[in-house]
Amino acid sequence: MTDFLRPATVEDALALMAAGGVVPLAGGTDLYPATQRRALPGLVLDVTGLPGLCGITTGPAGLRIGAATTWTALARATLPPALAALQQAAVEVGGIQIQNAGTIGGNLCNASPAADGVPPLLVLDTEVELVGHRGIRRLPLSQFLTGPRQTARQADELLTALHIPASALSGQSHFRKLGARAYLVISIAMVAVRLDLQAGRISHAALAVGACSATACRLPQVESALTGAPAAEAPALIRDADVAAALSPLDDLRATAAYRSGAAAELLRRSVATLCQPVPA
Amino acid sequence: MAITINGTEVPLPEDPRMSLAEFLRDGLHLTGTKIGCNQGGCGACTVLIDGQRVLSCLTLAVQAEGREVTTIEGLSSGDDLHPLQEAFIAHDGFQCGYCTPGQICAATAMLRELAEGMPSSVTGDLSRPAPLTAEEIRERMSGNLCRCGAHNGIIAAILQVAQEGAA
Amino acid sequence: MSRVQNTLIESVRKVVGWVPERWLPGGTPDPLIGRHGAVGTQLAQLDGPQKVRGAARFAAEVPLEGLCYAALVNSPVTRGRITRLDTAAAEAAPGVLLVLTYRNMPRLGLVPLMGVTNLGAVGNSALPILQDDQIRYNGQVMALVLAETQQQADHAARLIDLSVDTAPALSDFQAAKPEARTPASILVERNEQSAGDAEAALRQAAFSTDATYTTPGHNHAAIELHGVTAHWTGNRLVLHDATQAVAPTAAALAKLFGLRREDVRVLSPFVGGGFGAKGFWDHQVLAVAAARMVDRPVRLMLSREAVFRMVGGRSPTEQRVAIGADAEGRFTALIHTGYSVMPPYSASPEQYTLGTRSLYRAQSYRFGQKHLDLDIVPNTFMRAPGESVGSFAVESAVDELAHAMDIDPVELRLRNEPETHPLTGTPFSQRALATAWRQGADRFGWDARSTMPRARRDGEWLLGMGCAAGNFPYVRMPSGALRIRLTRDGQATLSTSAQDMGMGTATVQTQHAADRLGLPLDAITFEMGDSDLPAAPVAGGSSQTVSIAAAIAAAASKLTVELLRLAGNASPLAGLRAGEVRLAEGGLVCIEDPTRRETYGDILTRAGRDEISVTETGAPPLEIFKYAMLSHSANFCEVRVSDVTGELRVTRLLGVFDVGTILNPRMAVSQLRGGMIMGLGMALSEEVLFDERSGRIMNPGLADYHIPAHLDVPEIDVTWTGIPDPRSPLGARGIGEIGITGVAAAIANAVFNATGKRLRDLPLTLDRLIGAEGA
Lengths: 281, 167, 775
Description:
The complex is a heterotrimer.
Chain A: E1 4-5, H1 10-18, E2 22-25, H2 31-35, E3 43-46, E4 56-59, E5 62-66, H3 71-76, H4 84-90, H5 96-101, H6 104-110, H7 118-122, E6 127-132, E7 135-140, H8 141-144, E8 145-147, E9 150-151, E10 158-165, E11 172-179, E12 187-198, E13 201-210, E14 217-218, H9 220-226, H10 240-246, H11 257-276
Parallel strand pairs in A: 1-3, 2-3
Antiparallel strand pairs in A: 4-5, 5-10, 6-7, 6-10, 8-9, 11-12, 12-13, 13-14
Chain B: E1 2-5, E2 8-11, H1 20-27, E3 46-49, E4 52-55, E5 68-70, H2 83-90, H3 100-115, H4 134-140, H5 151-166
Parallel strand pairs in B: 1-5
Antiparallel strand pairs in B: 1-2, 3-4, 3-5
Chain C: H1 2-18, H2 48-52, E1 68-74, E2 80-86, H3 88-92, E3 96-100, E4 134-135, E5 141-147, H4 150-157, E6 161-166, H5 173-176, E7 185-186, E8 189-190, E9 193-195, H6 198-204, E10 207-215, E11 227-233, E12 236-241, H7 246-256, E13 264-267, H8 282-294, E14 298-301, H9 304-310, E15 317-325, E16 331-341, H10 356-359, E17 365-372, H11 387-405, H12 409-415, H13 433-444, E18 456-458, E19 461-473, E20 481-487, E21 492-495, H14 505-517, E22 524-527, H15 544-567, E23 581-584, E24 587-590, E25 597-599, H16 600-606, E26 611-617, H17 623-626, E27 630-642, E28 648-658, H18 665-684, E29 690-691, E30 696-697, E31 716-720, H19 743-755, H20 766-771
Helix pairs in contact in C: 11-19, 14-15, 18-19
Keywords (chain C): Molybdenum, Oxidoreductase
InterPro entries (chain C): Ald_Oxase/Xan_DH_a/b, Ald_Oxase/Xan_DH_a/b_sf, Ald_Oxase/xanthine_DH-like, AldOxase/xan_DH_MoCoBD1, AldOxase/xan_DH_MoCoBD2, AldOxase/xan_DH_Mopterin-bd_sf
Pfam families (chain C): Ald_Xan_dh_C, MoCoBD_1, MoCoBD_2
């Protein structure tokens, strides 16, 4: 009964995955609830022992986050202000027990439309690194996420790391989410915003919304409206209609579609306003 | 191929599908660790692994290989209760007692997280140490559900221990 | 049956009404009322140390040699017939001992439904358990798999191949309304009751409100999952169960499996939260049957999803409340009617109109409930069944009327306080709701409330205050038995099969016994949670405290008689009768001449006895027919609502309770607060999401069914009037359920005061707050 494997190298992991029917396991925080059963399905491959999958490193090309880095490790790391949104998201993922076990890579692979990690990573132009026996490939996160609970990962591939290009490490970022109760488990709407400010104007804007469409997405139209705008006027440039047009909000158990897109627009305005506030000297 | 549980080394279970919660409860009869949902939704199964709080229902026992697990049974020694255990009694921080071990294990780790300056989502400024307020403790304990409604007593108990520790 | 029941109960009321007070229980107030002894002190829960160490052993934690584990397969469809049930792969899987389906399940009868005409019964469902190929609701058990380990059982359960021929199902609330049934009675009350022509009075009223309120299904969501460990030794059965009904469960199992009652033992020393859910369901029967078939102990713990699918919750309701008032605000008409779900195989009528019937004086009334027969898991009683959701409707309506009339909502309620029960004219045993209102308004700072909505603001946050009353009937169960065993060393052990889920029953009754028997607290041992002990009824309806108190009082009286007989002529007590002595200071004391006294130890020693033991049952609860006996609450709430996002935060909550004597203030606060927090959840987030097309619950887990988390719960203020009920044992009334009543309405009314938006549908979610029309 060898249902559980904990390979020590990526090569071993890939060899095992090549046989098929393998479910990669990291923190387990999504996998267990998704199975709705106490026993896990099939062969389980624990990736948390693989070298290079945990931790954050910086280089000239940018920042690399190992896929099995936990939310807690992210929250505690010293990172550029551009990653503040990701760190804010990290402390809002479930309870702290979940943050201690759950990983950023697992969050992406499970591809919930309400995955907390996605909007902050989208505004960082994140690329994902997939390793398979055919080699390594990199994909923009937006192409990796193909639909609710669907990704471009092949069954024999492993998500090993996230890469944030140096060009996206500038500016400041902010994350907000809204849920049905004070303590948020699953949100109705969430946003991440990263802005570069130069001489009181926005020189670069990246905005993303989660939980309001099949997969979280960037809002290019709103971003271009903000680019070049004076910081003080920026929040008012985010119009409900533009936000709604970019999203296809879900009319589901937790809120109506109209409420969702309205809420997303409001959260965006707030995040932009927070980032545009003059920093007290 | 062993786990250290409350200071004692125990061999791993034969069946790798066994969660740590099931291993503790069914395998070792350490039933102080509770199962309330088996889905990571309630916090009743909280234990400490290498000092960090985790949900034992979402952890396979084999994943804890070579690590130190502390359960509610490992917090007190003999008749001496842990200060949090004393405080839970003093503040009526429970009724049925089912979520209680998870609350206490979570609080144990939380006090250390606070001391280490780890921020939470209600900490306004993530770069400064979190203030010791009821609101901070509520946020940090929100992964542990209680249905009897002992919330006020639980927070009061933890706050008291936190303040005594900080003093 | 119901009509016969109505006639029967109304005759008892009539007869008891004629009987002189002093002949009835409570006719002479309990002498312990007003005594300052152990009762009224802040004793901590006696089992606290066990609980904080994780040493309290729950039902699914009992270690047994040879234990095997069960997993269940539940129906994914609502109605239909099993066409294929292939268990071969499961049976061949490693470790599997048994696959139990309708084909090999022992043929068993139906479990009698609990009800007021069958108080010993415990059934929540009158449906057959694994007896045929029919599927009657979504989530019904299709098979049980038993294996050496839980992992093997879970794995094998997935290998069962089930095909179903689906049939049309009734699962749409609105579609079922035309076929609604009108039952003759709701629990002990006649269902449809009216006085005067309420509809006409409503039309003619100077001021009126007439609206529909809805509440969704709720789930008890106790943190402990339903679990049992079943164990046969020959023809004797031991069941470690998480149940609120210890002795009744033993009786039901004995009957079902053809055993003598004394050959069934149910043990339930700890229950991890019940709130009405920890009763008799299919899982006990399945585990017991499986254990017998493999002749090994069996553990069956339901998954969280199975708890949602197999253990019913609170029914959704749609309620109409209409109130007419004259120019002074006196009610001229009060109407409360509506619909809830109660399939014929369920036991719980969700009595949402009952509380309203005694809450206000009006010139005319109309009350009545209709039941919808949907194909659902049988709904059941959940904390304050009826009053919890009924109070949301009626207390929202009173607030609507107060606003329409521009009268303070507390004042409007005070103007309509009844002197006697509004429908029957029966006197209240004790009712100080008006006192609670005044006390609460003062404590809360109610005068800071603006009468105009949207008047108080803090940035984007709108502030508001609201209030609402709650009530819950006093219930004392007949036939609760209790044994007192007194030993020569002055120690007393009290034993009853009743259950303590953390309410503090054992602690409070230890306090009571100390006072009743005149012994120190450490001389008392209170045993419970074992069906081998004298049989107590179900722990429900907030009845247990007074039911046990009455049994202790009765047993103490019997003990007095027995002790006097043992004392004999050589005792200083010689010649005294039971009425002439009291139990105090470790013995019997003559009331007239306290120098004539003797300790229990001396009496027993002289008689050559090591101990004395008496068992007695509390007097029949006839007081509930003579008086209108209810607890009341006045709830006050302050909220903040974001004008932009609709986020709602309850910042302050106060409950003032008129619940008779408070037996242990520390635990009373916890119980009442606990109820209020469940009310908070009901107001803010709790909702069973039911797919009306498929008949399936869509959020069967704690990540999706949102009970309040720490961050949702503010510091909650609880206080009471402290006035004893002269007609109840110890002057007390149960406090397990009153806490939840009125809370949701107080919050919704505060939201209206903050925002001008009247939300008549629970829960008060942020999209509803932003979407709603202003007043």
